[in-house]
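Section 3.1: Structural characterization of target chains.
Under the original work plan, the team committed to producing a structural model for every single-chain target entering the pipeline before any wet-lab resources were allocated. The record below documents one such target. The sequence was received from the expression subgroup and is listed exactly as submitted; it comprises 291 residues.
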Amino acid sequence: MKNFIIRTITGILFVAIMVTGICLRGDAMILLFALITGLTLWEFTGLVNEHVADTTVNRFITTAAGVYLFLAFAGYCTGIVPPAVFIPYLLTLIYLFISELYLKQKNPIQDWAYTMLSQLYIALPFSMINVLSFQADPQTGQVAYHWLLPMSVFIFLWANDTGAYCAGSLFGRHKLIPRISPGKTWEGSIGGAIIVLIIAAVIGRLTTESPSELSTINYQLSTIEWLGLGLVVVFFGTWGDLVESLFKRTLGIKDSGNILPGHGGMLDRFDSSLMAIPAAVVYLYTLQFLG
């Protein structure tokens, strides 16, 4: 009972912080996800250093580089800074490669591999939320912050998790990928997808009938396109969850951390979004290209 109460309180606070940070204003979203990026990278590199033999990743520089990449994307997407803002990040990556020539580590290739993995798996996906959030008016060129797209991704992820848990508990019989995540079932995944499609249809209806504050500039999505976005988030969110499960299973750990009482670590909370956010960006840009 005590664990349930702690888990519930943590969950409510987590959702409240996420909703407030995303919906309030653009700079609040940037600060929130810069912090999330840093904490997740710090957790990831700590797990690697502790559980992967003969591997030593530079936690501070790797984390700082990832946070810088996120802030660089934020600055570029808001139109504040030019593309040259990415040069220091590239120089940092070069340094992380060259430094291994002189550190005499036991397995420099693994150091390189996990350092780059942290950037591709965590820093870059989180940075993509800036692409969803900041859009330029095609007529004036003025960049504005729009909370609906990034918020909808997380609404879909939360709804998918809730629906999958409920449907899986009631009807789950057939395992999705038992060698990686024995608890996930096909019935649960289908149940989660149905809930997300219902929510996506509601959002699509609201954005076509409600005032302009619920719409976006570049992405004028129809209800069908919102349904497509919902499915993209469901599929890639599920894969993101499975990827993190495989990572933890490989390291032989149950939770990625304990920063969120009752919910594990940062990777445990954001594993789905690490695949869903970049997938949503690709989907929306594909719609733009085809349109």
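The first helix runs from residue 2 to 24.
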